[in-house]
Task: structure prediction
Amino acid sequence: MFHRDFTTINLNWGSFEYLTLSQYWVWSMPTFIAALGGSMGAWLGLSILSLIQ
Result:
């Protein structure tokens, strides 16, 4: 038997599973800097080559 000023809250969950996301670097910092420097060197070389022509 419930009273007029009585509130009932029912919380139901299907399961207590949760998703875990993790991030990690694929490249290390020295590898990234080397790749960036190589790309910049290639673009700079092509730019200078196009200026000479």
